[in-house]
Structures are given as C-alpha cells and as structure tokens.
Amino acid sequence: MAKCAELARLYASMGEHNKSQLYYRHSVEMLAKSLPSLPQPSDANDSKKPDSKQKESKTIKKSA
C-alpha cells in the first residue's frame, strides 16, 4: 500500500502525472479494502429523540 503511494509521489515529481494518478488510485483502493466494516446506526432519528427522564430533569419548577 505504502509502496504504491511512494511510486505515485515519485512519478509526480518526475512529471509522469498519468502514472502518478494510476498508482495513487491503486493505493487508495488498497487502503479501502484493508479497513474493517463497522456497524452502522439503524436510524439517525433514534439518537435525536430525548428520553422522558431527560425531559423531567430539564423542567424548571417555579415556586410561588
């Protein structure tokens, strides 16, 4: 993976931009394949709904 990135930098410094882009894309693809798959949230709206306990604790009681 790092070797492809280094080749991309080398080719870029030599003015070989097409080869540089090819090796850069290859290194990015290899990096993406090595990442683990992580669990995804089931619904983004679930985290925005406040609990009933949170509502009760936030209410301010006014004394007369």
Pick out the low-confidence regions. Answer: none
- Counting helices, strands and paired strands, the structural category is mainly alpha
Order of helices and strands: HHH
Proportion in helices: 55-70%
> What sort of overall outline do the alpha carbons produce when their principal axes are compared?
elongated
Query: Distance between the terminal alpha carbons, to the nearest Å?
Result: 70 Å
Q: What is the tally of helical segments? A: 3
Rg over alpha carbons: 26 Å
Question: What's the overall average pLDDT, rounded?
Answer: 79
Profile the largest sheet: none
How many strands appear in the DSSP assignment? 0
Q: Tell me the β content.
A: under 5%
Please tag this protein with its features:
single chain; 64 residues; mainly alpha; 3 helices
Textual characterization of the structure:
It is a single chain. The protein has 64 residues and is mainly alpha-helical. It has a domain at 1-35. The protein contains three helices and no strands. Helix 1 (2-13) packs antiparallel against helix 2 (17-34). The longest helix is centred in the middle third of the chain and has 18 residues, at 17-34. The relative contact order is 0.11. Residues 34-64 are annotated as: Disordered. Residues 45-64 have a biased composition (Basic and acidic residues).
List the helices and strands and how they pair.
Elements: H1 2-13, H2 17-34, H3 52-58
Helix pairs in contact: 1-2
